[in-house]
Write a structure and sequence with these properties.
Layout (H helix, E strand, L loop, with lengths): L2 E5 L9 H14 L3 E5 L5 H4 L6 E4 L12 H7 L5 H12 L3 E5 L10 H7 L1 E2 L11 E7 L12 E6 L6 E2 L4 E6 L8 E9 L2 E6 L5 H4 L4 H13 L2
Parallel strand pairs: 1-2, 1-3, 3-4, 4-11
Antiparallel strand pairs: 5-8, 6-7, 6-9, 9-10, 10-11
């Protein structure tokens, strides 16, 4: 059993974070983990204390720049305070595990250090994803996280592509946005300081988190980052 902090929340314009949080909570508790959930990143300053083994992030707290987000920005626009940055950076670099799920690379878009922790970040004007729909990912690496997974994972979600990706990641699964696309990494591991990090790109809604093939993979990702 591990102690896990779950950050699931943010702008509701494209994601039902209450649904996502509930699914993650059920998944973690099914593995007998102790879970503390929050929908706001600034609470991590108090939550990432001694005895916490892992942080799971499926959240979208960002500046929301651009005309398309005018109606949402006043309520949901976010800039990352130094205390929140320090709490996350210290937690992972000192040995805490991180599972960065789905929208995590877009989160904290005013803080370049977040992408350097996760190992990838959204590049505005470059990165993209097709509309939500059927996705097909191929397992391409050998690792405890994908042990027992089918060689091809099929579910309804989104494939994020053309992210900035660090050069030291160990890619475990790839998918394509279209038949003409190149392979895009949708699952990888890396180290940040003493901490273990997993990026898992699928997790658009609760059904994806609890998908019969994807849910066990996410559970193994949490177990791996908790193994210090």
């Amino acid at each position: 059993m591990a102690r896990v902090v779950l950050l699931a929340g943010g702008s509701p314009h494209a994601h039902d974070y209450a649904d996502i949080a509930s699914a993650w909570e059920r998944l973690l508790r099914s593995q007998r983990h102790e879970v503390v959930s929050t929908d706001h990143p600034d609470r991590l300053v108090e939550l990432l204390g001694d005895g916490v083994d892992a942080l799971v992030v499926n959240a979208l707290h960002w500046r929301m720049e651009g005309e398309g987000y005018d109606r949402w920005r006043a309520r949901w626009g976010y800039r990352t305070p130094p205390a929140t940055r320090d709490a996350i950076s210290r937690f992972v670099s000192e040995g805490g595990g991180l599972v960065a799920n789905h929208t995590a690379p877009i989160c904290f878009d005013d803080w370049a250090g977040w992408g350097e922790i996760v190992g990838c970040r959204w590049r505005w004007g470059v990165s993209s994803h097709p509309p939500f729909g059927p996705c097909r990912a191929r397992i391409v690496g050998r690792h405890p996280i994908v042990e027992g997974s089918p060689p091809v994972l099929e579910l309804d979600d989104e494939v994020y592509g053309d992210l900035w990706v660090a050069g030291d990641v160990d890619v475990l699964a790839v998918a394509r946005r279209s038949s003409a696309d190149a392979d895009q990494p949708v699952l990888f591991t890396r180290r940040h300081g003493a901490g273990r990090v997993v990026f898992a790109g699928f997790g658009h809604h609760g059904a994806s988190v609890e998908h019969p093939d994807h849910g066990p993979l996410l559970a193994r990702a949490v177990s791996w980052v908790c193994d210090r």
